[in-house]
Write a structure and sequence with these properties.
Layout: E1 39-46, E2 51-57, H1 59-71, H2 78-96, E3 102-110, E4 115-122, E5 127-133, E6 143-151, E7 154-163, H3 168-179, E8 184-190, E9 193-199, H4 205-210, H5 213-217, H6 219-222, E10 225-235, H7 241-249, H8 253-260, E11 265-269, E12 276-280, H9 281-288
Parallel strand pairs: 5-10
Antiparallel strand pairs: 1-2, 1-10, 2-9, 3-4, 3-6, 4-5, 6-7, 8-9, 11-12
The structure holds zinc ion.
């Protein structure tokens, strides 16, 4: 019999520290025919204001996200679902404004409701993914934002900050204020259409700080925008069963016994996207066989 995923104890669901924080890439082996339309992110330079405006409509990325939830029979509370979608949008716009060799992972812990949100993505693979951990999350009295950034040939950069509002875009703005060189602001252009504006050196800060949803909607009429580049992103993890077995194999024998609970099969979750995989004792033995 297949064991319930909720009983899978070793993938991180119980504390901020154990929620995955790695920005390490999964190799992208997906063929283009398998995929829906990618989400185009456009980066503009706002002339005379010295700011970067990054914009995308996330409709197709959210379609892929919902297909993923359906495929793996993952159900979120509507409020949690909205938080994860905001996290995916915020991370995608952030990545699009960063060098092409960077990958990033954000773990956002909310104190109330108590949950951990994990989003990760890569400019190299042009993908983002993520999941929510809402059960057995350690109770805290603070909202925490943990960021890890990796880039080819450079050591990983990490930072942890606290933030006030239980709102994902506010959390990312707090992260920019406290950890990044430049401030950033996020705006909702439409339900699934978001804009991030980051201040560049010599930015017109009074203009930047008084931007609101209305002025963002009129940005292309009121400001001189130069298109710098377009990037494509998809909701896609890149995980498969061959990448789940190494995670299991790295666990202690006692933990592996607990996972299988005397059965020959169990269900394991991908720590990045929550995809469910049927694993077997036999499969694990095959994986561990030398050579
Ligand atoms: Zn995955």
């Amino acid at each position: 019999m297949v064991k319930k995923a909720e009983n899978f104890p070793q993938l991180p669901t119980d504390s901020f520290e154990r929620t995955p924080t790695s920005a390490i890439d999964m190799p992208d082996e997906t063929t283009p025919e398998d995929l829906n339309e990618a989400t185009e992110v456009r980066c503009y330079f706002v002339r005379n204001r010295n700011a970067l405006a990054v914009r995308a409509n996330f409709e197709s990325l959210y379609v892929d996200y919902y297909l993923h939830l359906m495929e793996h029979r993952i159900r979120h509370e509507p409020g949690h679902d909205a938080l994860l979608k905001d996290g995916l949008a915020a991370l995608t716009l952030h990545l699009a404004s960063r060098p092409r060799n960077e990958a990033a992972a954000w773990t956002i812990h909310l104190a109330n409701p108590s949950l951990n949100l994990f989003v990760t993505g890569s400019n190299r693979n042009q993908n983002v993914t993520g999941r929510i951990f809402s059960e057995n999350v350690r109770e805290t009295d603070r909202n925490l934002f943990f960021s890890q950034t990796t880039a080819d040939g450079l050591p990983a950069r990490q930072s942890t900050i606290e933030f006030e509002d239980a709102d994902i875009f506010s959390a990312v703005e707090a992260f920019y204020r406290q950890s990044e060189q430049r401030p950033a602001r996020y705006f909702r252009h439409d339900e699934e259409d978001f804009v991030m504006v980051t201040a560049q050196p010599d930015c017109d800060m009074p203009w930047f700080l008084t931007l609101d949803d209305d002025s963002i909607r009129k940005l292309d009429e009121t400001e001189e925008l130069s298109l710098l580049e377009r990037r494509l992103f998809r909701f896609e993890c890149g995980c498969d069963i061959d990448r789940i077995y190494p995670v299991i194999a790295s666990m202690s024998e006692a933990t592996i016994d607990e996972i299988f609970a005397g059965e020959g099969t169990a269900i394991a979750d991908c720590p990045r996207c929550g995809a469910h995989y049927d694993i077997t004792r036999e499969g694990l033995r095959e994986f561990r066989r030398p050579g």
